[in-house]
Amino acid sequence: MSIQSNCLLPPSLVSFSKRGFSVRSFGTGTHVKLPGPAPDKPNVYDFKTTYDQMYNDLLRKDKELYTQNGILHMLDRNKRIKPRPERFQNCKDVFDLILTCEERVYDQVVEDLNSREQETCQPVHVINVDIQDNHEEATLGAFLICELCQCIQHTEDMENEIDELLQEFEEKSGRTFLHTVCFY
């Protein structure tokens, strides 16, 4: 199963590949935004900026702040996975499942997929579960998403079982899941 994830990747989500999933991470905005010294002052980078460049920039700006909030750790981990962030709208690869962790991102992904010319009519399930953008929530969310993916992987008929599975996860987690099917 190939999974595309549009969310902050905590260490537990990166371990998806160790569980047999093919995982890629994307942004959907026009720029990469990382938390800054204040909520209204994010650090904004172009998608061409490497993780190494972002890391060094934040190290220079305020090593203590970006170490404490986990951003330097996240960038260090990310640069070992790939050189720079990728923008979903620029990717033409095909996925079975796309997971988002913010409704705004879910809407952008669905809008982009629906605007593409359908070529193969292969379905892609797009699922959103809102996860707050902090390390603790991202870690808990990653475990929930990993469990969801494992359950989906073990279904005999994903197309007919996914709605019931998502309902079970909503009841279990107390979170609301959004789900739609788009086609390539």
Notable features of this structure?
44% helix, globular, alpha/beta, 6 helices, EC 3.1.3.16, RNA_pol_II_suA, nucleus, 7 strands, two-stranded antiparallel ribbon, five-stranded mixed beta sheet, protein phosphatase, hydrolase, 184 residues
Characterization of the model:
There is one protein chain. The chain is an alpha/beta fold and 184 residues long. Helices cover 44% and strands 18% of the residues. It has 6 helices and 7 strands. The protein has helices at 11-14, 51-68, 71-81, 103-115, 135-153, 158-173, and strands at residues 2-6, 22-25, 32-34, 43-45, 97-100, 123-129, 177-183. The strands form 2 sheets. A 5-stranded mixed beta sheet has the order 2-1-5-6-7, sandwiched between helices. Strand 1 (2-6), helix 1 and strand 2 form a beta-alpha-beta unit. Helix 2 runs antiparallel to helix 3 and helix 5 packs antiparallel against helix 6. The chain is globular and about 50 Å long. The two termini are 16 Å apart. Residues 6-12 have low confidence and may be disordered. InterPro entries: RNA_pol_II_suA (IPR006811). It is found in: Nucleus. Its main location: nucleus. Keywords: Hydrolase, mRNA processing, Nucleus, Protein phosphatase. It catalyses: O-phospho-L-threonyl-[protein] + H2O = L-threonyl-[protein] + phosphate; O-phospho-L-seryl-[protein] + H2O = L-seryl-[protein] + phosphate.
